[in-house]
Amino acid sequence: MGRPSAGKHTSPARVVLAIFMLILGFALVADFLWASSSKFTSSYLNVATNWSPHTSVILPINPQKGETVEVKNEKKDVVPKRVLPATFQDLPAPELKWEKMAAAPVPRLDGAAIQIKNLLYVFAGYGTIDFVHSHVDIYNFTDNTWGGRFDMPKEMAHSHLGMVTDGRYIYVVTGQYGPQCRGPTARTFVLDTETKKWQDMPPLPVPRYAPATQLWRGRLHVMGGSGENRHTPALEHWSLAVKDGKPLEKEWRNEIPIPRGGPHRACVVVDDRLLVIGGQEGDFMAKPGSPIFKCSRRNEVVYDDVYMLDDEMKWKNLPPMPKPDSHIEFAWVLVNNSIVIVGGTTEKHPTTKKMVLVGEIFQFNLDTLKWSVIGKLPYRVKTTLAGYWDGWLYFTSGQRDKGPADPAPKKVIGEMWRTKLKLNP
Questions:
Q1: At a CB cut-off of 8 Å and minimum separation 6, what does 42 contact?
Q2: Measured between alpha carbons, how far is 225 from 262 in angstroms, rounded to an integer?
Q3: What are the C-alpha distances in Å from 346 to residues 178, 297, 343, 410?
Q4: Tens digits of per-residue pLDDT, 215-234?
Q5: 370: which strand partners?
Q6: What span, in angstroms and rounded, lies between the C-alpha atoms of 55 and 84?
Q7: Please, which pLDDT band fits residue 86 given cuts at 50, 70 and 90?
Q8: What is the rounded CA–CA span in Å between residue 334 and residue 113?
Q9: Cβ distance 182 to 230 under 8 Å?
């Protein structure tokens, strides 16, 4: 008879342990498969981003009064709510009847414009990101035609200009020289619109992009803009005494700094008041090491601030715009003691992070110091160039949106539009 082997004998304790380990293994595998499923991943992302496609959305009706309305979907998932800002949305506005006029000879982005009587002088600007214009086109509001093209000085900036007129002479201050995101120049010039002759002026103490520029109390004022890296907001404020197209001083004088720096603002003088409206902090910069200074986007903060310089040479805050608005330096006109502002850009979209263009027309009544939304443009547009003549509001050039459903920028345009403008007192 053979002897029984000790290795083939299994105790009850070992059997129980083996069964327990087997069950534990199945449980771990099942848990891993569930965690890898789309349902788990979707749930995790919803919590991580504080957003669910089934959550309620709080949409402001009137940003000034803080009124809101809650829109609910059918599903009742309990997740955190996210409040979406209204600034990236179109504000309610009256529909206007627009008439398409003769297009500008070339499309322009970040160009400049000055109106003198019935003539709109349109300067420089990007044609494409790799090509900039270096000439002036003129639009005649009386017969609605373009003509009278002439060249700018070779040393003059091509975009992001500071510009203002006294009714004959146009003062041109600093700006970006060249395409893409090249550096700024400190050079300044003056144009005699009757003779079409240019003259040099004392250079700005340091170069600036898109500074707020105006004539006030016999002095040429230049404020804010972006620093030499194109992104850092500048607070400096300088002035230079001028008369009949000539500087009366050799150097710029330091003035009270603007409370908040940055480019792309409207700057208006009316009734001996100097106002600076809207704008932004930050802008595109040249990509480090790029031989062509290729533009690279940085964070931008658009604001609705309105500042006024008073008799004591102190800045005061006035009521803010209906929404943050930038790229409006030449998109304004004065009508019946009101400032009318056309288009621009507002805060980036909270989901897509893309730039959002503005399609509204804003009115700031200087008697009541109240803002209102008085109409819609044919499309959203930034850095457009506005004029007003014989009851008609005109705008031309800039960069328009991708369509009614997409406020992101797309095409650089040269189109000219007009509408009859009637303002309520």
A1: none
A2: 4
A3: 26, 16, 9, 15
A4: 999 999 999 999 999 999 99
A5: 365
A6: 12
A7: low
A8: 14
A9: no
Q: Quick: pLDDT tens for 351-374.
A: 888 999 999 999 999 999 999 999
Separation CA 191–CA 198 (nearest Å): 5
Q: What is the pLDDT of residues 127-176, one digit of tens each?
A: 999 999 999 999 999 999 999 999 999 999 999 999 999 999 999 999 99
Residues 71 and 69: their CA atoms lie apart, in Å, by: 7
Task: Strand 338-346: give its sheet, edge to edge.
Answer: 332-335, 338-346, 356-365, 370-376
Residue 183, judged by CB atoms within 10 A of its CB (0-12, 13-18, 19+), counts as: middle
Residue 251 CA: distances (Å) to CA of 187, 238, 247: 13, 10, 9
For residues 89 and 370, the answer to whether their CB atoms sit within 8 Å is no
Residue 159, CA atoms < 13 Å, CB-side half-sphere: 26
